[in-house]
Specification:
Chain lengths: 463, 301
């Protein structure tokens, strides 16, 4: 009798086990396209045997574990790679926007405006008494000034848009860390009762990668399966089920742009300088380094144009006999404050002597010469040479950022491929498993039928 | 190695993206005709492009200056030819009046014609180009020569000259002040004519004789000035040729840095298109290699 009962339970263990195995297969197949999903395996094992004669008799099959297929090392590499991808792609985007200022395919640049301005001054030199040439010279000077203003405004606009992205990044970080803290809690609860929190762990990995895309992090898992997450110089963002929020605080000594602040135990520190990766790094670099440097260079160029032109201009005489006059506003020595001081073209000091008016053009020729004169305040370059080296420097930074991003993308693709090899779902494999488990399920049900027949035979003995 | 569907699709996707990026760059190059559109396309070449454009703009401006200068010198040249002709006529009249058969009346008639010519000469000395007097030194806004009293002609221009820029730190004079042509260095032309007129009017034979000598000197003085103008025109011409050549060279250099080699670009474009089509084909094939296509519908046994 115990033999037949055992046969029943062996058969039913098979039915249960293969149902579970088929569920796992179904789960895998349905999640074939879920990003970050790790393939699960139903681990089958025989149940504990019972003692008997002549030896131990088996009691069936069970699913001992539903195992998540992951390569922890590859996952860590992927998290690190996200950090670089975030950084490089933010830098690349910012630099591409900035370098458009120097591209004259779509119109005027400071470089072409400088050329136009000096050309117009040459026309004044060639026809010093021609008022039209002087009016044109003034309007090209105004165009040059406008170009400086516009460039400066565009850079400031870009800075503000980067600043908004910094604020968004901080919001994202807080949202990811709170997700991770929540998942920590759920995973610890599930796993303390001996369960495998496979799907929750996948979700947490996804949140961790998203977080890493925004800021550099390191993480460590404790014995209860909970992840501690640190950023920058070891500031803890997640500890068990608690997440520490970062705050974006306007800094009045940096044009009111947002600082990324970390507060713990009542003391606040600013993380800006110690953030070394993620989108936030790229955004902060562009906002606080690249753009201010470029604005500084444009200011230097503006200042030199203003002072060099003014100094020469003061030495000459206008058609109306005026002398010692500033061409550009003396106080406007930055890209944003630069302005043309003269409103009357006749005041352009083309003549070197009062007696030589109107045909004397010696001072106009000296002004024209400034175009090709090296200036010590511009590292001994000409106006146009300095502009050109500024443009080339932004260009090579943009080029470098694009190359970095492409290289990192290739590395990331390889890591993703490796992850897919370990954790990805193969439809073919799952379909074969499905057939295999289906057949086994059919066999197990046959065992139950057979046990039933045996039982009926025995019951019929009594009749 | 396990091959999973994710891997296959990922690989395909990243290849697609790579090819699309290349395709886009190639298309942009072919459609704009430019290899360097932004500084990052080739930072080094971009630097050269900016400086070549600046040189080209300067060269174009120098050529413009030369055009203006040439038209002024041409005007001076043709004016001086007329001056020279008129002076010859004055000399003819003086020679005729100097002969012993000339009566006081004949000399008075000659004086009338010489006076007429004198006023024509004053008008020529006040010639303007683009509204600017060309023989006034840098006092280009005034009429430099005026008949003040009787036959006295006064010069109110100055002795300054004007030059135009025709190269880096290189200028060419485009004006000779009237004081150099009519006022010196050997003869004050208008003064000599005034003296001649006085001699003709007072029937002074020796005065007329002096006048003939003065006219000879005046003619050679104007010829000298014309020679100077011709030399300056020549220099402008030579510089113009050199600048035009330089401009062509600069254009070629700019084109080399900036423009795309269309043959190469189009070949590359069609290569990328082929790769793109191949990727698409691979995607298509992938669908038919799934085990799903070979499994029958599950049947209950």
């Amino acid at each position: 009798m115990s033999g037949i009962t055992n046969l029943f339970s062996i058969g039913s263990s098979g039915l249960f086990a293969y149902q579970k195995a088929l569920s796992v297969t179904g789960q895998n197949l349905s999640n074939v396209n879920t990003p970050g999903y790790s393939r699960q395996d139903a681990v089958l094992a025989e149940t504990s045997p019972v003692n008997g004669q002549p030896g131990q008799i088996g009691t069936g099959v069970e699913v001992t574990e539903i195992k998540r297929q992951v390569d922890i090392f590859v996952n860590q590499q992927l998290t690190l790679s996200q950090q670089q991808l975030g950084n490089f792609s933010a830098s690349k985007d910012a630099l591409n926007t900035i370098q458009a200022l120097f591209s004259d395919t779509n119109g005027t640049t400071i470089g072409s405006a400088l050329n136009d301005f000096f050309s117009a001054l040459q026309d004044v030199a060639t026809s010093p008494s021609d008022v039209t040439a002087r009016t044109v010279a003034l309007s090209t000077a105004q165009a040059l000034v406008d170009q400086f203003h516009q460039n400066d405004t565009q850079l400031t606009d870009e800075q503000h848009s980067l600043d908004q992205s910094v604020g968004q990044a901080v919001t994202d970080i807080n949202s990811y860390t709170s997700q991770i803290a929540q998942l920590n809690n759920q995973i610890a609860q599930a796993e303390s009762s001996g369960q495998q929190a496979n799907d929750l762990r996948d979700q947490r990995d996804r949140a961790l990668n998203s977080l890493s895309n925004v800021i550099n992090i390191s993480s460590i898992e404790d014995a209860t399966g909970q992840l501690s997450v640190f950023t920058a110089q070891g500031q803890q963002l997640v500890s068990k089920n608690i997440s520490q929020t970062l705050t974006a605080v306007p800094n009045s000594s940096n044009h009111g742009f947002l600082d990324v602040d970390y507060t713990i135990g009542g003391s606040t520190s600013t993380l800006n300088a110690v953030i070394t990766g993620g989108r936030l790094k790229g955004l902060l670099d562009a906002r606080d380094q690249i753009i201010p440097t470029l604005q500084g260079q444009l200011n230097t160029l503006a200042q030199q144009v203003v002072t060099q032109v003014n100094t020469q201009h003061q030495a000459g005489f206008g058609l109306d006999g005026s002398t010692g006059v500033d061409f550009f506003l003396a106080g406007g020595t930055t890209a944003s404050t630069m302005a043309v001081a003269i409103t009357d073209g006749r005041k352009i000091a083309a003549s070197s002597t009062a007696a030589g008016i109107p045909g004397n053009n010696v001072n106009a020729l000296a002004l024209v010469n400034l175009q090709t004169t090296t200036v010590s305040g511009l590292s001994s370059m000409t106006f146009s040479g300095y502009y050109q080296s500024t443009a080339a420097s932004i260009g090579s930074q943009a080029d470098q950022a694009t190359q970095n991003l492409n290289a990192q993308q290739i590395l990331d693709d390889q890591l993703q491929a490796h992850r897919a090899e370990v954790s990805g779902v193969s439809m073919d494999q799952e379909l074969i498993n499905m057939m295999q488990y289906q057949r086994a399920f059919e066999a197990a049900s046959r065992i139950v039928t057979t046990a039933d027949t045996l039982m009926q035979t025995i019951l019929s003995l009594k009749q | 190695m396990r091959v999973t569907d994710q891997q296959t699709y990922q690989l395909l996707l990243s290849n697609f993206q790579q090819v699309s990026r290349n395709l886009l760059t190639a298309q942009q190059q072919v459609s704009t005709g430019k290899r360097v559109n932004t500084p990052s396309d080739d930072p080094e070449a971009f630097g050269r492009i900016v400086s070549t454009k600046s040189s080209l703009s300067q060269t174009a401006q120098w050529l413009r200056n030369i055009d203006r200068g040439t038209s002024r010198l041409d005007m001076a040249d043709s004016t001086l030819s007329q001056v020279s002709n008129l002076l010859s006529r004055v000399k003819e009249l003086a020679v005729a009046a100097a002969s012993g058969t000339s009566t006081a009346n004949d000399r008075l008639t000659a004086a009338t014609e010489v006076r007429d010519i004198d006023r024509q000469l004053v008008a020529l000395a006040n010639t303007q180009a683009d509204g600017q007097s060309i023989f006034a030194g840098t006092k280009t806004d005034i009429q430099p020569y005026t008949v003040t009293s009787g036959d006295t002609v006064t010069y109110s221009g100055n002795a300054e000259t004007q030059s135009i820029a025709v190269g880096q730190n290189e200028t060419i004079q485009v004006m000779i002040p009237g004081s150099q042509i009519f006022g010196g260095p050997t003869t004050d032309i208008f003064g000599s004519i005034a003296n001649l007129l006085a001699a003709l009017g007072s029937n002074n034979a020796s005065g007329i004789q002096t006048g003939i000598g003065d006219m000879d000197q005046a003619i050679s003085q104007v010829a000298n000035a014309q020679g100077q103008v011709g030399a300056l025109e020549n220099r402008l011409g030579t510089t113009q040729t050199a600048l035009t050549d330089a401009s062509t060279t600069l254009q070629a250099a700019l084109s080399k840095d900036q423009d795309v080699d269309l043959a190469t670009a189009i070949t590359q474009l069609s290569q990328y298109q082929t790769t793109y089509q191949a990727s698409a084909k691979a995607l298509n094939t992938l669908f038919s290699t799934s085990l799903l296509n070979f499994l029958g519908t599950p049947t209950a046994s």
